[in-house]
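[Discussion] Sanity-checking designs against the backbone

I'm trying to build intuition for which residues belong where. Below is a structure token string of 105 positions. I'd appreciate it if someone posts a full sequence so I can compare it with mine line by line.
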């Protein structure tokens, strides 16, 4: 593999979107009959957990439905785990495992 290819490969960062993380959390909540987490509530919590000045670094948009757009976060492994940890250690472990699998793929 050329140095250029190695540099390109090492610069690719695997992320999970806030939509994926909320779905992941809700998978655990369904099993425990907890109230399901809404994406807008997760979005409001991100700046509180990651910091008001740091969170916008990961902000993006997603198109969905009939030409609708919504804000999402695309979180790398560390930040995804921090957000999951703010809900439970079990969810944190599952998110960590999922991110590791994505990195290995």
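Best answer:
Here's mine. Compare freely.
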């Amino acid at each position: 593999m050329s140095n250029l290819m190695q540099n390109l490969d090492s610069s690719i960062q695997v992320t999970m979107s806030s939509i994926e993380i909320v779905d992941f959390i809700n998978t655990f909540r369904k099993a425990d009959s907890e109230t399901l987490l809404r994406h807008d509530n997760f979005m409001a919590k991100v700046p509180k957990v990651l910091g008001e000045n740091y969170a916008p670094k990961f902000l993006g948009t997603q198109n969905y439905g009939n030409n609708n757009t919504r804000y999402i976060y695309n979180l790398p492994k560390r930040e995804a785990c921090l957000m999951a940890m703010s809900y439970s250690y079990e969810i944190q472990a599952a998110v960590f495992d999922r991110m590791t699998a994505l990195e290995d793929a």
